[in-house]
Amino acid sequence: MQSSPERDRRSRIATLQTDIAGVIERHTRGLADCATPMAELGLFRREAPARPAVCMVQPSIVMVAQGTKRLLVGGEGYVYDAERFLVTSLDLPANSEVIAASVPKPCVGLVLRLDVRLLAELIAREPEAPPRERSLQGSVGVGGVTAAMLEPIARLLALLDEPAAIPVLAPLIQREIHYRLLATDQAPRLRQIVSVGSQSHRVARAIDWLKMHYVEPLRVEDLAARAQMSVSGLHHHFKQLTGLSPLQFQKWLRLNEARRLMLSDGAEAATAAFSVGYESPSQFSREYARLFGAPPRRDVEALRPGRGAQMSGPAAPGRHRRSMAAAGAAG
C-alpha cells in the first residue's frame, strides 16, 4: 500500500501530465510535428502505433505526456512514457517507434534541446562536486519524471499562448528546467557530457566535426587526433556511446542527406550519391538499401507526399539543419 506522500506525489505528476498533454494536443491538432516560437522546443503527436523510423536525435530531453514511445540505439531499446523521460547527451543516429497511440488518445509530447553550456555553468555553481561516477555505458538514458521538473515545463508550454512574453520568460524557465534535470537520476549522464576532457566530451567533438565534414574522405587517424584520443580509444568510446564506428556514423550521415536531396530537391540517385561523397553509385545503392530497406528510387517513391510515410533525416549534416519539430519525431 502506498504511503500518503507517495500517493500525493503520483497524483501531482498525473495532474501535471494531463495538463501538459492537453496543451500539446491543442497546439498539434492536425499535425505530426510542430515547431514553436522557441527554437529549442518542438512538439509531436502520433495517432497510431508506428514501426521504427530512422532519425537523428540531438542532445535533448524528450517527454511523452500521453502514450508510449521507444528509441532504439545501437541495439538497445529505451521505452518512455508519462512516468519516464528520455535524455540523450550526444547527436545519435537512432530509430524511433510509437508503441501506444490512438485517435481518441494520441501519443503527444515534447522535445527540448539541451543547452550544454548552461548545464556546465549550473554544474560549476554546485557548492560541492558530486562523487566521481564511473563511466556510463552509452549516451541515452531513461529517468523518472518528477513534479519539480514538470512544473517549469508546464509554464514553458503556457508561453505558447503568450508569445510576447517568450523572449523575457522562456530563458528563465529553460534555466530552471536544466537545474531540475540535474536533480534527477540522469544527472550523472549530463555531468559526464559537459566534463571537459571526458571521453564523452571528446566523442562529441568528433561528432561535431563529422557533421560538418561528412562529404570529405575520412581518415580515422586524423579524427582521433582532433579528438585528442588514440585511434583504438576513439573507436571504442565512439561505438560505446553511439552504437556505430566513426566510419559507420559518417555513412549514416551521407545516406540520410542523400535521401533528403532526392525527396526534397528531386535529385537523381547518382547525383545525390556524388553530392554526399560517394564515388560509386552502385555502392551507394547497396548501402542505401541496407539502411532503409529498399533501393533509393523505391524508397523515395514510398516517401512522396500522399503515400502516408514520413522521412526523418539527419539533424545537422553540413549546412542542412532540421527544425526542432523534426527532432520531435526523433524522440
From TrEMBL:
The keyword Transcription applies. GO terms for molecular function: DNA-binding transcription factor activity; sequence-specific DNA binding. The keyword Transcription regulation applies. PANTHER family: ARAC-FAMILY TRANSCRIPTIONAL REGULATOR, TRANSCRIPTIONAL REGULATORY PROTEIN. Residues 204-302 form the HTH araC/xylS-type domain. Residues 299-331 are annotated as: Disordered. Keywords: Transcription, Transcription regulation. It comes from the Bacteria. This is Transcriptional regulator, AraC family.
